[in-house]
Structures are given as structure tokens and as C-alpha cells.
């Protein structure tokens, strides 16, 4: 979503009560953060792999340094929203697909912004209306090995599993991530390979 699109979105009720600040990158936001007490960050994404990875890393950093600030991602479409939901190393307050109608986007954002002060444990309810199936530790391990260039037989050897089992886990990961090709799976594996193994411990908001 463009800057003009976001400005239009926040110019209309029920979002017009909020003051919107736009930043071209996370570094610019961090500079402003030292002077302005923001209560929510809305990161608008395209479906570019590098941008998605940078978003997840940046919001993880924000979760460590300013856990009281709400973290919302506007994903390009349902597929990207699913990837974000599965791969984010830190908890998010909301993931919203920009493929929703204007009215739905406004209502979902208004709902999330009214929930500042605590992480919403049902964050995925605001996207798709149901919880997504999370990747298992084995599925995540397989993706990390794929990102490192390991073949299926090599992964089976590393995990002390047979090849059929590894292929089954790989297939399950593809289903959960909503990808239908090895290229899509490698995209997700590459992102996961650049993210930490564990999520940060969030501080309670004061």
C-alpha cells in the first residue's frame, strides 16, 4: 500500500482519530522514536522476499527494545500473511491482508489499534478469521537445512530420519505455508534461515 493509500485510509472514520506518521524505512522510524512516543507501528509490505525478511527482523528488534509498542503488519495478500504468521520470530499484535476490502481494512485496523497495551493472543483472528497451523520444530529444522543448501538425503542424515519422513515433513510445511512449489518453499526457507531460533521475552507495558 502506498503512502497516499495509507493517508487516505487514516483520513476516514474510524481511523481519523489517530495521527499517522509515515517513514520510508525502519532506520528513519528509529530516529523519530527517540523523540516521539509512538504506541503502534504498522509495517506495510509488498511480497518481496528481502523486504519481508527485513520487516520480521526489524519488528523483532522493536519487540526487544520497545515491547510496549504495538506491532501490526499489512501483508500484500493472503499468501504473504500466511508466511508472516508462520515465520515471525516475535509475537505480533496483528497481521492483515491488504487484499481485504477498504471497509474490512479500516475495521480490522480500528479493532487492533483499540487493543494497545497488551499483545493480542488471538492476533490471527484479525486475519482469515481462524488460527493458522503452526510449523513444527522438525519442519522448521528442515527449512533451515534447505536454506543452508542441504539436500533431502543430507537432511535425513542430519536429523537421523528416513528420507520418506523428511519428505512428509517437507510436504506438511508446504501446506502450512501455502506454497505449492520448491521455489516457494525455498523462499520461506531463506527467510527463516536469517531469523533467530527463539522469540524475545516481551516486557509488560507500564
Automatic annotation (TrEMBL):
It comes from the Bacteria. One of its GO terms (biological process) is regulation of DNA-templated transcription. PANTHER family: DNA-BINDING TRANSCRIPTIONAL ACTIVATOR DEVR_DOSR. InterPro entries: Sig_transdc_resp-reg_C-effctor (IPR016032), Tscrpt_reg_LuxR_C (IPR000792), WH-like_DNA-bd_sf (IPR036388). The keyword Transcription applies. GO terms for molecular function: DNA binding. Residues 128-193 form the HTH luxR-type domain. Keywords: DNA-binding, Transcription, Transcription regulation. This is DNA-binding transcriptional activator BglJ. CDD domains: LuxR_C_like. The keyword Membrane does not apply. Pfam families: GerE.
Amino acid at each position: 500500500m502506498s503512502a497516499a493509500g495509507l493517508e487516505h485510509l487514516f483520513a476516514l472514520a474510524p481511523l481519523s482519530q489517530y495521527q499517522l506518521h509515515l517513514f520510508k524505512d525502519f532506520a528513519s522510524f528509529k530516529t523519530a522514536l527517540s523523540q516521539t512516543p509512538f504506541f503502534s507501528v504498522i509495517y506495510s509490505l509488498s511480497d518481496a522476499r528481502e523486504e519481508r525478511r527485513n520487516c520480521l527482523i526489524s519488528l523483532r528488534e522493536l519487540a526487544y527494545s520497545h515491547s510496549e509498542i504495538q506491532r501490526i503488519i499489512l501483508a500484500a495478500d493472503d499468501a504473504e500473511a500466511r508466511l508472516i504468521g508462520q515465520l515471525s520470530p516475535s509475537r505480533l499484535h496483528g497481521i492483515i491482508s491488504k487484499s481485504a476490502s477498504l471497509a474490512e481494512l479500516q475495521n480490522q485496523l480500528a479493532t487492533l489499534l483499540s487493543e494497545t497495551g497488551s499483545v493480542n493472543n488471538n492476533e490471527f483472528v484479525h486475519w482469515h478469521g481462524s488460527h493458522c497451523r503452526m510449523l513444527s520444530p522438525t519442519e522448521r529444522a528442515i527449512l533451515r537445512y534447505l536454506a543452508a543448501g542441504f539436500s533431502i538425503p543430507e537432511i535425513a542424515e542430519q536429523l537421523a530420519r528416513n528420507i520418506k519422513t523428511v519428505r512428509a515433513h517437507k510436504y506438511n510445511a508446504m501446506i502450512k505455508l501455502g506454497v505449492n512449489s520448491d521455489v516457494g518453499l525455498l523462499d520461506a526457507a531463506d527467510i527463516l534461515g536469517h531469523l533467530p531460533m527463539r522469540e524475545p521475552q516481551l516486557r509488560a507495558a507500564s
